[in-house]
Amino acid sequence: MSPYKGQTGLKRILNATGFSMAGLRAAYVGEAAFRQLVLINVLLIPLAFYFDVSQVERALMIGVCLILLIVELLNSAIEAAIDRISLDIHPLSKNAKDMGSAAQFIALCLIGVVWGLILLG
């Protein structure tokens, strides 16, 4: 076992949960885009229960909404890591941030495609 690893067992799970909650809190407080996407989820997820769709379709509709939040968390983490390294303008830093933004754009498109296919199909 690595001496750099933390706790094991239940203590590890509790620590990981605390770290995850801290990450969600940091994203909500510090990232306007994350707050906007939470609002989209607060609107869309209950709306998924309004439509007369199968359970699998409803799960897909909700799942793609949650993927949007996951991608935004990863995008924000990439941006924070790049900014931690340097605030200087560098082509590789720009590429990393742009790719994170592109991932978020694709996740937004995924919501449109999945919801459109289910509701219009």
From TrEMBL:
Q: Binding residues for ATP, per the UniProt record?
A: 12, 31, 79, 97-98
What is annotated as the active site? 72 (proton acceptor)
Name the residues that span the membrane: 34-53, 60-82, 102-120
Q: Which UniProt keywords apply?
A: ATP-binding, Cell inner membrane, Cell membrane, Kinase, Lipid biosynthesis, Lipid metabolism, Magnesium, Membrane, Metal-binding, Nucleotide-binding, Phospholipid biosynthesis, Phospholipid metabolism, Transferase, Transmembrane, Transmembrane helix
Q: Is tRNA processing tagged as a keyword?
A: no
State where the protein is found. Answer: Cell inner membrane
- Output the InterPro entries linked to this UniProt entry: DAGK (IPR000829), DAGK_prok (IPR033718), DAGK_sf (IPR036945)
Q: Which family does it belong to?
A: Belongs to the bacterial diacylglycerol kinase family.
Q: What is this protein called?
A: Diacylglycerol kinase
- Which organism is the protein's source? Pseudomonas pohangensis
